[in-house]
């Protein structure tokens, strides 16, 4: 805008006359709209109409609207500063996803004109967690088409970046979603971007927002009350500080009945953890000067249910599982300490295959170094050790120490012990360590106070084999499986149809079998499988391939058993020769 023209236009107006705002001088309009004089003269000559009044009124209206918006923003900013309260939630908190999920189901997400579509990949258990049949997902061969089934799952629509207003319990809230640059930290120099949610309400107290967040949290927990959440350490390349936990997945809680372990042992473990998690236990531990921590060691052959028991315990007590792999090459002792310090008040920390981490004192190398030092000292005393040999020996020892320091990575035994029960370590967690070889563990790691209970898992017993068979073929819903008939000209469809028919018949025989008949079949199956030779996982894997055909499982278990045992004997001979 040329303000010099505007000043000249007002100065050239007749002296003593008041300017008419609805009909500004041509020179003034020329300052705002370049070329206005030529355009207005052309319209006046052609149409005989002076557009000065319309243009002047438009400019005045524009100025009024612009100034009103500016004043409104200033007034609202002052009102928001002194008369409104806000609570912020960043994307690193679990509450962030819960708020977005709750907002997506509100009316404001359905009527808003600025939405973000999020593809719901869903879980393997379905969008609603049910296992209902869907006939439309079957093609003409009777094969389940996952693409057709997943295509019917609509995306979730959530508010996009910006401000959105909604009402909850007769109170107005403002939902603001924004993105900002993440601040760097000493542990993670990568910046990146992070999303931020701001919830605002009228009033100088944040209590209404806190009540809303508590309601959203309860709503989210109610939806996942039968789910177990699994968390792992956050990656260092995500721009977040070390020591944070990421939510990896959630799965339906595993019933304790599905764990192949002696019932008395399971009852003993559940009672021990239940007493430990009781609200009165922390004070009891504190008054007696005992650290409020509990540790368990599950040991036994692979496939005997050590990890399964951990998940079942998490489902019973409603705890999240925090899994740590000590074999992670980028995991340092300081990271491990921060991970333990960032645990919630109550949780289960799972350290799987603790024996593979190599957390042992290197007694052989220490003894070897001592022997070398003694040999050097003897040779020096015998005066048969030249200066050149002495320099070479010193250089060799220094080189070995240097290589030892370079190879020394990850978490040491002392670092793990300090994280488990150090002075500043976290209290209130349940630590579960699993191993296939308890004899390889250092005594300092499994001493009382760090491991309070050791649970031995054995290969499948007779009762466990029987229970696995009954659990595999029992029908919890007491509903017959629908028979599907499918025909096709192709050989693939014919083969599929035959397979579906046989599996359906087997399913009908198995799923509709009376409990007495099922128990008799389970007894026959348990007698055909040797006790203490196969793991529960191996038996379950065999039955899974015949999960709807119990009679077929009885007919083929003998050949399968012989083949597995023969393969184990060959493997044992090879290992013995090596």
Automatic annotation (TrEMBL):
Residues 478-512 are annotated as: Disordered. Belongs to the AAA ATPase family. BCS1 subfamily. It is a single-pass membrane protein. SMART domains: AAA, BCS1_N. SUPFAM superfamilies: P-loop containing nucleoside triphosphate hydrolases (SSF52540). It catalyses: ATP + H2O = ADP + phosphate + H(+). Keywords: ATP-binding, Hydrolase, Membrane, Mitochondrion, Mitochondrion inner membrane, Nucleotide-binding, Transmembrane, Transmembrane helix. InterPro entries: AAA+_ATPase (IPR003593), AAA_lid_BCS1 (IPR057495), ATPase_AAA_core (IPR003959), ATPase_AAA_CS (IPR003960), BCS1_N (IPR014851), Mitochondrial_chaperone_BCS1 (IPR050747), P-loop_NTPase (IPR027417). This is P-loop containing nucleoside triphosphate hydrolase protein. PROSITE patterns: AAA. It holds the Pfam family AAA_lid_BCS1.
């Amino acid at each position: 805008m040329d303000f010099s023209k505007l000043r000249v236009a007002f100065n050239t107006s007749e002296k003593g006359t008041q300017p008419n705002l609805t009909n500004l001088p041509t020179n003034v309009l020329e300052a705002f709209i370049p070329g206005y004089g030529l355009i207005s003269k052309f319209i006046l000559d052609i149409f005989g109409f002076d557009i000065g009044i319309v243009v002047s009124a438009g400019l005045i209206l524009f100025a009024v609207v612009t100034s009103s918006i500016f004043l409104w923003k200033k007034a609202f900013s002052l009102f928001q500063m002194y008369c409104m309260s806000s609570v912020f939630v960043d994307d690193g908190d679990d509450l962030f996803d819960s708020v977005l999920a709750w907002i997506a189901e509100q009316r404001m997400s359905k009527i808003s004109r600025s939405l973000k579509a999020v593809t719901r990949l869903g879980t393997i258990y379905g969008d609603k967690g049910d296992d209902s049949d869907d006939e439309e997902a079957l093609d003409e061969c009777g094969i389940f088409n996952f693409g057709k089934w997943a295509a019917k799952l609509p995306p979730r629509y959530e508010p996009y970046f910006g401000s959105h207003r909604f009402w909850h319990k007769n109170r107005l809230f403002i939902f603001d979603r924004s993105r900002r640059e993440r601040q760097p930290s000493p542990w993670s120099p990568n910046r990146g971007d992070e999303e931020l949610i701001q919830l605002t309400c009228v009033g100088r107290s944040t209590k209404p927002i806190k009540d809303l967040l508590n309601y959203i949290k309860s709503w989210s927990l109610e939806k996942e009350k039968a789910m177990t959440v699994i968390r792992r350490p956050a990656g260092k390349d995500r721009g977040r500080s070390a020591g944070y936990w990421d939510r990896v997945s959630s799965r339906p809680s595993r019933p304790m009945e599905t764990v192949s372990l002696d019932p008395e042992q399971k009852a003993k473990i559940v009672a021990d953890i239940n007493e430990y998690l009781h609200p009165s236990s922390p004070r009891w531990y504190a008054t007696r000067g005992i650290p409020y921590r509990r540790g368990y060691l599950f040991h036994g052959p692979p496939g005997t249910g050590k990890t399964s028991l951990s998940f079942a315990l998490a489902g019973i007590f409603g705890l999240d599982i925090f899994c740590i792999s000590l074999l992670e090459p980028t995991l340092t002792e300081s990271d491990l300490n921060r991970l333990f310090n960032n645990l919630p008040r109550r949780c289960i920390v799972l350290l799987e295959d603790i024996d593979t981490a190599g957390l042992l004192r290197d007694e052989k190398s220490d003894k070897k170094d001592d022997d070398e030092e003694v040999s050097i000292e003897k040779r020096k005393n015998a005066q048969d050790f030249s200066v050149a040999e002495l320099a070479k020996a010193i250089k060799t020892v220094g080189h070995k120490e240097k290589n030892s320091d370079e190879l020394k990575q990850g978490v040491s035994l002392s670092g793990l012990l300090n994280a488990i029960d150090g002075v500043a370590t976290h209290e209130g967690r349940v630590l579960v360590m699993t191993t296939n070889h308890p004899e390889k563990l250092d005594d300092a790691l499994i001493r009382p106070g760090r491991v309070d209970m050791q649970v031995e898992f054995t290969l499948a017993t007779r009762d466990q084999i029987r229970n696995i068979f009954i659990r595999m073929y029992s029908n919890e819903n007491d509903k017959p499986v629908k028979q599907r008939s499918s025909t096709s000209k192709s050989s693939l469809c014919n083969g599929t149809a035959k397979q579906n028919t046989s599996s359906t018949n087997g399913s009908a025989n198995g799923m509709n079998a009376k409990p007495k008949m099922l128990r008799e079949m389970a007894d026959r199956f348990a007698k055909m499988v040797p006790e203490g030779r196969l793991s529960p996982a191996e038996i379950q894997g065999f039955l899974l391939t015949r999960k709807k055909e119990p009679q077929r499982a009885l007919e083929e278990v003998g050949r399968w058993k012989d083949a597995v045992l023969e393969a184990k004997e060959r493997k044992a001979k090879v290992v013995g020769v090596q």
